[in-house]
Amino acid sequence: MIHKYLLPGKATLLRDFIFAADDGLLTTFAVVAGSTGASFSKSIILTLGFANVFADGIIVATGIYLGIKGELESIRRGDCLQKSEGAPLGHGLITFISFVLFGLLPLLPFLFLQKDEFMFSTVIVALGLFSIGALKTIYTQKNLLRSGLTMLIIGGISAIMAFLVGFLSDKYVV
User: What proportion of the chain, given as a percentage, has pLDDT over 70?
Assistant: First the structure.
């Protein structure tokens, strides 16, 4: 049975965690993949990656916070028919923490390895995407393998696009 706080339309920490984990992992890997495609140095990849993790983490967390705060204000005025659950600050914090934790994963090989960093980053991201998709089944009650593979395929498409944009930009634009 699905817990009452996991009903569609309700603000849940699980939803925020999954959204931020997926976003953090993919946006950071998009920076890594695009930078690798453009043949940027390891120091530039790390600089762009860390800037992405922390700046986007704050942006996403404050967006969730402000969105839920707005919903609650609307409910108090009687403008909204649906109740929102939870405190905006808690949702913002879980969003930031999840975004940063998963966003740092693609950067780890660039911090600790001297070769094949992109390959190891790709493997870490693939495992992370599958895990996020599998974790989502707590909410959706769907097939774990299918959910994990769906997330992996969607994330993989965005990663390939980022790499290609970086590669093509390096060859034809810059």
Answer: 89
Residue 78 has pLDDT above 80, yes or no: no
Residue ranges per structural domain of the chain: 10-168
Q: Identify which of 21, 45, 26, 22 has the alpha carbon closest to the alpha carbon of residue 166.
A: 45
Nearest of 62, 113, 110, 107 to residue 88 by alpha carbon: 62
123 phi-psi bin (left φ>0, alpha ψ -120 to 50, beta other): alpha
The amino acid that residue 173 corresponds to is: V
Amino acid at 149: L
CA–centroid distance for 72 within its chain:
25
Interatomic CA distance for residues 144 and 85, integer angstroms: 26
pLDDT at 81: 54
